[in-house]
Structure formats: C-alpha cells, structure tokens
Protein 1
Amino acid sequence: MTLRIMLVDDNLTFMASVKKTLRLVPNTLVVAEAHNGREALALAQQCQPDLMLLDIVMPGLTGLDVARDMQGWAHAPQVLFLSMHDNESYRLAAQSLGALGLVGKANFVTELLPFITGLAEASTEVAP
C-alpha cells in the first residue's frame, strides 16, 4: 500500500524541496499540494490523503487551525507539522491536536526522511 501524502506550506521553495526529498522514499506518493489553510481543508476532503505534512505558520488559517478543523472528520489524515518555529509551545499544541509530531524545517531531511520511511513501511505491512 502506498502512503498518500499531502503537502501544505506557503513557502513554495521549501515545498519543492520536501517533494523532491519524498521521491527518495519508496511506497509514498504526494497526492496534493496546498499553499494556505483554506485550500488545505478543501483539497484534503477531495483527495483524502493518509498523511498531511502541515506548516504551522501560514497566513489566514494556520496549520494548527487546519488540524483543529479536521479533528471532527470521520476520515481525517494523520498530521505531521513542519515549522521553522520549532519550540516547546508549538510542540505542545501539536501534541494536544493529536499530531504525530513536529519536525523543524532546518532539520527536515535528517528528521523527516526516517519518519516518513517508517510510516511507509508500516503502511505496506498492513496491506493485504
């Protein structure tokens, strides 16, 4: 089974780097990209990703707002926050929203790749 991932970030350069990095991980597929919170909510309902890589600080709806809105969904994607603001208050907020965690953008290659690889391997083990 392929891990279906949605990227949400208002920084297009960073999003392109993440997308390129995810191509290195077997059994993953980027199914959608959004550049703000409202677009993320609409696309997530349409594409139904397994995992949303979600920036915390964005104009309009923040990543925290998006995760909070999705809590009431029957089939909400898992959330992993990406942020250049890697601090304890954001980590606690992410945890309180049931997120898988928070990866600092400065460390996204060294922290994100092993995390996504583990999720992709787990999703293939579950497949019939």
Protein 2
Amino acid sequence: MLNTKPLVYFLCTGNSCRSQMADGFLKELGGEKYEVKSAGLEAHGLNPRAVQVMKEAGVDISGNTSDVIDPELLNRADYVITLCGHADEHCPVVTNTRTAKWHWGFDDPAKATGTEDEILHQFRTVRDAIKSRMERFVEDGE
C-alpha cells in the first residue's frame, strides 16, 4: 500500500542534531499524521549529546542514521523544512511545485562551548525550542 501521509523532510547541514531532534519529536507527536524523514547537506553522524537530551525528553533517536539529502525524497516531500541558515541557503532546488518549503532556524547546539553542563544546557534549550515548534506544527499544520 502506498503511503498517503504527507511527507515532512527536515534538512540541516550535517543531520546530526537539530534535524534529528525535529525528526524524533515529529515522529513522537505526529507520527500517525506524517511520514517523517531527515537529512543533511552532509552526513556528520548522530551527535551523542542530541541522543542524550532527547532521551531525557522521552524520545529515543539512538537508532536514527545521519543521511545525505535524497533527491527522490526531496521532490516527493509535502514539506521541506530547513533548520539552519546554511541548509536553507544551500538546499537543492525543489522541483515539485506542491512542496511547501519553510525555514525554521535554530541555534546549532554542536557549536556550544564551555563546561559539559553548559554545553548540555544549550542542547536542552534547542531541544525544547524544537519540541515547541513541532507541537505547533502538529496542532496547526504550520
């Protein structure tokens, strides 16, 4: 059977933190309504701190993979959502005219510096902002 759920494709530079968090939260909050995928301009690997802070929030992304953008998925997507400025500026052209392309910018927690506690605080701040945005998307479709 063909999947008829709208496809949401989250894009970031390395598909290691923000797009993984968005992927995890949307699957958790709206997985019955949406097909959810994420990818990056490059594949940097899944960030262990992203896995840790998502686990704290009750979402397991440890089985996710860090993937490079798939042109077929990109052009099949109903929503292409970039989560960082670099991905927004360098995203491949979406040729499907029915695809909604949105940019929801979040700070890159992988660039946080300081003590481990300070770095994890930044990861949690970004995680919570992404969760809030996913809740609004599931509720309002925007």
